[in-house]
Design a protein that fits this description.
Layout: H1 3-49, H2 55-84, E1 93-95, H3 98-107, H4 110-115, E2 119-124, E3 131-133, H5 135-153, E4 159-167, E5 170-176, H6 211-221, E6 225-230, E7 237-244
Parallel strand pairs: 2-4
Antiparallel strand pairs: 1-3, 4-5, 5-7, 6-7
The chain binds adenosine-5'-diphosphate and magnesium ion.
InterPro entries: HATPase_C_sf, HATPase_dom, His_kinase_dom, HisK_dim/P_dom, HisK_dim/P_sf, Sensor_HK_Regulatory, Sig_transdc_His_kin-like_C
EC number: 2.7.13.3
Domain Histidine kinase: 24-247
Length: 252
């Protein structure tokens, strides 16, 4: 068979695989959305009879959790589509307080972390430089996903370390956990869209497998790099982002 023939066959299989994964994701979207709707209706009926019902709080938590799951799946798909179509340009601005940005990002995960007894610690070099990045997109597409992955794979009672230091004219942002880690042979593949560790035909972990792909796209648009390592303390995963002080989109 010719090389072209082989390539065509390979691309057909990839497209089929992506379609299958997309339909499985859409299927996953249905259950959180259904949960949102039924919990909201139950809450609505209950609260009319009894505003002090203790179950109301539980329903509200379920609504929030399901809502966030659905939202992050949809967000991942939309981000990928936009960035791949070249429609989502970065808008770098001066960032004076990297530590503050890290703390604010972490705060949105506090509730989930406390519920599972997971500590999130920040360690930064002092002082850090003023940089020129698109912090909004870095938080939304990269940091949020690294921290949510770290939480997803952390054992109860675990610790997540978020750190920032300089190396030459780069800032090194790192998110480390003490979870199951990423085997060395999977460390590149997980950055490809829809890929999760150890998976060939089924998805075991919730999520679309788009988070790291999107994170890499946004980091590369800053002229930076992102990769996975062993956590410094041996067990668990570390995800490292190298970002130049001033974001510069590389020439294509
Ligand atoms: N902190 C981590 N510890 C262990 N495995 C991880 C971690 N972060 C990511 N992974 C692996 O990389 C895969 C891809 O991550 P991601 O692109 O964010 O997709 P998703 O979170 O939707 O699965 C995960 O499914 C998991 O297999
Ligand atoms: Mg993820």
């Amino acid at each position: 068979m010719t090389q072209v023939g082989n390539k065509e066959i390979e691309e057909e299989t990839i497209t089929e695989r992506h379609n299958r994964i997309l339909s499985s994701i859409t299927h996953d979207l249905k259950s959180p959305i259904n949960a949102i709707i039924s919990c909201a209706s139950l809450l609505n009926e209950k609260s009319r009879e009894d505003f002090s019902d203790p179950m109301s709080g539980e329903f509200l938590k379920m609504i929030l959790k399901a809502g966030h799951e659905a939202h992050s799946l949809v967000q991942g798909i939309l981000t990928m589509a936009k960035m791949e179509a070249g429609k989502d340009k970065i808008e770098p601005e001066l960032v004076f307080d990297i530590k503050g940005e890290l703390s604010e990002t972490i705060n949105t995960f506090r509730y989930e972390a406390e519920a599972r007894n997971i500590k999130i610690i920040i360690e930064v070099e002092n002082p850090l430089p003023v940089v020129r990045w698109d912090m909004k997109r870095l938080r939304l597409h990269a940091l949020n996903n690294l921290i949510s992955n770290a939480l997803k794979f952390s054992p109860s009672g675990g610790t997540i370390l978020v750190s920032a230091e300089t190396d030459g004219n780069m800032v090194v942002l790192k998110v480390e956990d003490d979870g199951i880690g990423v085997p060395p042979e999977e460390r590149e593949r997980i950055f490809k869209r829809f890929e999760q560790v150890g998976l060939t035909s089924t998805r075991v972990f919730k999520g679309a497998g788009l988070g790291l792909h999107n994170a890499r796209m946004i980091v590369e648009r800053h002229g930076g790099d992102i990769y996975a390592l062993d956590a410094t303390k041996g067990k668990g995963a570390a995800f490292v982002m190298l970002l130049p002080f001033t974001a510069e989109e590389p020439m294509r």
